[in-house]
């Protein structure tokens, strides 16, 4: 019963994180809180949908499944009925969540390291930063002429997405390991006499 209550709390925690991850990705489509005239000028990593797909859509599966775990833990008043199937289901959906969070994490790291795509002058939109050099030298931020405040906008939102995906990886990873150990430990138990 402890495992079911823990899974239910975990599922409830994943939902607000999924909503926040999706929201950060949506806000990245409006750099500096502006609507872009040409979507080609958006930072490439925004189009990989790390927040929408990784932190959001793929996180719905473990969240809903873990919230419903309480309803499927037993049948006919017997707690052991279908327990292995329930734990196997928990392993699968936790794995899906872990993959989604890892995807969002990688996209965020790449985007933070690369920096935003911005207008640098002479009708040129490009990535003016190299290997995260703008993270150490704030004076380089002036290389981006437009959109206004694009560097702190992208840096903040991708950092939030990075933190969200880190929490999601941690939560899904704990649930995955817990479910695997529960199945293994159940197999190891000596039958009662």
From TrEMBL:
Source domain of life: Eukaryota
Keywords: Membrane, Transmembrane, Transmembrane helix
GO CC annotation terms, alphabetical: membrane
Keyword Transmembrane helix among record annotations: yes
Membrane topology: Multi-pass membrane protein
Localization in the cell: Membrane
Chain ranges passing through the membrane: 7-30, 46-69, 90-112
Predominant subcellular localization, coarse grouping: membrane
Family of the protein in this entry: Belongs to the L6 tetraspanin family.
UniProt-recorded name of the protein: Transmembrane 4 L six family member 4
